[in-house]
Amino acid sequence: MNFAESGIDMDNNSPLNDKSASVRATDSASNRQASAADSKKSCAESRGFEAYIALGSNVGDRERLITEALLMLQAHPAIEVLRVSGIYETEPVGYTQQPAFLNMTAAVCTSLEPLALLRAMLSIEKQLGRTRDIRWGPRTIDLDLLLMEDVAMEAGELNLPHPRMMERAFVLVPLRDILESGHPLKEQVDQAAALALEDGGEGIKLWNMIKWHNESAHSEN
Prior knowledge:
- This protein is an alpha+beta fold.
- The protein has six helices and ten strands.
- Helix 1 packs across helix 6.
């Protein structure tokens, strides 16, 4: 797939140096926050739900796989990808004898109920070759539903908010990039992400940035 034709601008594939990563991440986060209110209003007007999804990969072409997953989310007739975080490289957690991960998050607008959205995500995982051989083990792609409006549920198949998201730097740091300013967890996520970066939690570092076409559209309105 030609990413340029699909509305994704990819920067170079090598890790960014610390100075350029910091400046570009700050600028990009500011743009995301400026467009978050517009996207939230647009989602509400379309009678959709705003949800936050974590994406990760540590097998094969990691960056291409998570980008492909984004495109497949966007291609779903009931899902629109509104905002995306930077891509971060992190050390594995739990089962550590495996390659480093690339992780990011995306804010989406969807007309699907939580379980239906989860099943759409699992279908994308399957299409991209996901297998579940080892808990927390290597994977081509991992999609986790973190938050969905003010939904709180424990359904076995799905718990919301995600029960471990506040413990993981690889979730908190990219989630901070895209979480809307008025969200009830915004301050808590910001503080936890800042602490994780300060402590070097999970060896997290900015890898690359994606300019998502919807962010540009919202920022121009």
